[in-house]
Amino acid sequence: MKNYKIAEAIVPLCLMVAMFFVGRYIAGSVHDAKEAAGAVLQTENWGLGFGAEGSKPTGNASVQDMKQYNAYYMAEDEEKKLYLTFDCGYENGNTCAILDALKKHNVPATFFVVGHYLESAPELVKRMVEEGHTVGNHTYHHPDMSKISDKSAFEKEMNDTAARYREITGQEMPMYYRPPQGKYSLQNLKMAKEMGYATFFWSLAYVDWNVDAQPSHEEALQKLTKRVHPGAVVLLHNTSKTNGEILDELLCKWEEMGYSFGALEELCK
Predict the structure, then answer these.
(1) Is 87 marked active-site?
(2) Which residues lie across from 260 on neighbouring strands?
């Protein structure tokens, strides 16, 4: 009887000890996971890892991790919808063809512009707005924003772009931001969020920015159709002659694959 009473007292004690260590293990695992996510988010260059053809890539951080900083690069669901974006550093004669193709297919896009583009191509900026596209902030001078830690300097890059856009269009610039070259820091993401911006990276892109070594039509179409995936935020450059020439055909191919097109604002909901 005495042994039974001892066992009766020890069992609950053992359970309490076990629960304590299990709790410590779970808490430690969660803490480690959060630390790992934070470390990834603090890297200075946006990067992607690709798996099987047609599957979603992995980014520097998960879609959920990025959301806490009002940052996005891909839709979470599996709907076959694409979000087209164009980075506009300067105008070299290809944007009209891009706009023509978008208009033909009734596809919305977001054009991330720098100060130079606003100064040198205001009529094209007006056309983007008139045709229902979004014009986002790509900073005024296109610097490496990951090197800017001073809040006032960060804000000036953003505010100067927004002010010039307002002068051209008479409208407030949408609060969408893309870091030049995808270079960022965790501090940048926080400052952009504090200013009210949503930061947009991408989940599909290809080497289209080198105007002196443009990809062939075949190469471009192959890469942009093989790597496409549900919920992709597509990054293209308006300076690409190839993009201007293939966009109509590319949109046709994506439509044949069952894709439709959405606006970036859908990712922020």
Answers:
(1) yes
(2) 81
